[in-house]
Design goal:
Bound molecules: pyridoxal-5'-phosphate
CATH topology of the largest domain: TIM Barrel
Number of strands: 21
Strand content: 25-35%
Shape: globular
Largest sheet: 9 strands, mixed
CATH architecture of the largest domain: Alpha-Beta Barrel
Number of helices: 12
Structural class: alpha/beta
CATH class of the largest domain: Alpha Beta
Number of domains: 2
Helix content: 25-40%
Length: 420
């Protein structure tokens, strides 16, 4: 576990968070390198000798240092934009180990992906297949493709992060996939490689994954009957983590269940949250305590622009004090709210804690969809990110300055003779 109390002070590995706050200021994202490595290895090692590639989903946390740590382990990457592809390459990842997901790949993105030679395009519609074919023809290359199917299974997760139901925009219906594969098989610019699905995120039971897999395997048989050979199955990401004491998936059991069903077919997984979620925290400082007859507000220096998940998904993050024992604080049921001018600007609600102004608090399990979903709303510079390994810490993203936030903007320039 990367984060634990030692002498009543919360530590990241062997480094006291209080030392990090002194060195880097508040608010701050802190990542445990050891946790990231161990989480990735847990997936990788669960496969044993079975052919596989663990493609970390970059959108969960795309900091170059995180990508570089994973690239060094031999990780593949699941990317959803040209920006993520360039990050992976800059961090030392291999294009040949990238799968390119996303519903709306542009011509420019497809060209670049073909130029660097991504492992596979996960195709999400008939129109996209045609576009990929046209771009491949224009550059004289063959595009490796998988079709992302929508298995129509209920992942029993938050509606915003459920993707495998017919009402979701992702993938193509199982019934349409056969035609698309035949079309792809007949094109000399497309190279059919895999079959792909991704049913949602923060899934805490194995059953929806295995339901989806069963449906995908039926399609695989139908494809085989038509002479279409699928060499890999990409089962997406979505493995949930423990935010609130929830039962989570045993990775080894999950992978064993997959292997028992798929014969020798190579498996690709795209975990994001499960690699980095618990490997990061967001630390914020209590600026003011404000109590009225109904509510107790702890106004902190972090806000919804820094950590959007509570506002956006009503997500829960455990709140831990950096100093475990605060004997002089005010005991109450606190709402942690930020400085942003929105009622929806909260990080946590109704937490029983003894608090004092000036305290530092950690929002746990903030390593995934934390910094990557942050914005500059209210002209707030994005916070610094720090990585810790054992007793060493390094800044992996500098805190933005206010001046940087409007450097690309210009006031209206009135020409000397403005024409009407
Ligand atoms: C978001 C996403 C993932 C990662 O999901 P996690 O829940 O973070 O594991 C994987 N694949 C695709 C296609 C995605 O959109």
């Amino acid at each position: 576990m990367g984060f634990s109390y030692k002498n009543q002070i919360l530590h990241a590995e062997s480094v006291a968070i209080t030392d990090l706050m002194k060195a880097y200021g508040s608010p701050l994202y802190v990542y445990s390198r050891t946790d990231i490595e161990n989480n990735w290895r847990e997936f990788d090692q669960a496969f044993g000798a079975h052919p596989h590639l663990v493609c970390y989903a970059v959108k969960a946390n795309s900091n170059l240092a995180v990508l570089n740590v994973l690239a060094k382990l031999g990780s593949g990457f699941d990317i959803v934009s040209i920006g993520e592809l360039e990050r992976v390459l800059a961090a030392g990842g291999k294009a040949g180990q990238c799968v390119f997901s996303g519903v709306a790949k542009t011509v420019i993105e497809i060209e670049r992906a073909l130029e660097v030679g991504v492992r596979c395009f996960n195709v999400e519609s008939a129109s996209e297949l045609s576009r990929i074919e046209a771009v491949a023809r224009s550059v004289g290359k063959q595009a490796p493709i998988s079709i992302r199917v929508n298995p129509n299974v209920d992942a029993k997760t938050h509606p915003y992060i459920s993707t495998g139901l017919k009402e979701n925009k992702f993938g193509v219906d199982m019934s349409d996939a056969l035609n698309l594969y035949q079309q792809a098989q007949n094109s000399k610019y497309l190279n059919v490689q895999g079959l792909d699905c991704h049913i949602g995120s923060q899934i805490t039971e194995v059953a929806p994954f295995l339901d989806a897999l069963d449906k995908v395997l039926l399609l695989l048989e139908q494809l085989k009957d038509k002479g279409i050979d699928i060499t890999h199955l990409d089962l997406g990401g979505g493995v949930g983590i423990d935010y609130e004491g929830e039962q989570t998936i045993d990775i080894k059991a999950y992978v064993d269940a997959i292997i028992s069903k798929v014969g020798l077919t190579e498996i690709i997984l795209e975990p994001g949250r499960a690699i980095v979620g618990n490997a990061g925290i967001f630390v914020t400082k209590v600026e003011f305590l404000k109590q009225n007859s109904e509510h107790s507000f702890a106004i902190v220096d972090g806000a919804m622009n820094d950590l959007l998940r509570p506002s956006f998904y009503n997500a829960y993050h455990q709140v831990l004090p950096i100093n475990e024992k605060n004997t002089t604080g005010v005991q109450a049921q606190w709402d942690l709210v930020g400085p942003i001018c929105e009622t929806g600007d909260f990080l946590a609600k109704n937490r029983a804690l003894p608090l004092s102004e000036g305290d530092y608090l950690a929002l746990m399990s903030a390593g995934a969809y934390g910094f990557t979903m942050s914005s500059n709303y209210n002209t707030r510079p994005r916070v610094a990110e720090v990585m810790v390994a054992n007793a060493t810490h390094q800044l992996v993203r500098k805190r933005e300055t206010v001046a940087e936030l409007f450097t690309h903007e210009h006031v209206w320039h009135t020409p000397t003779k403005e024409t009407i």
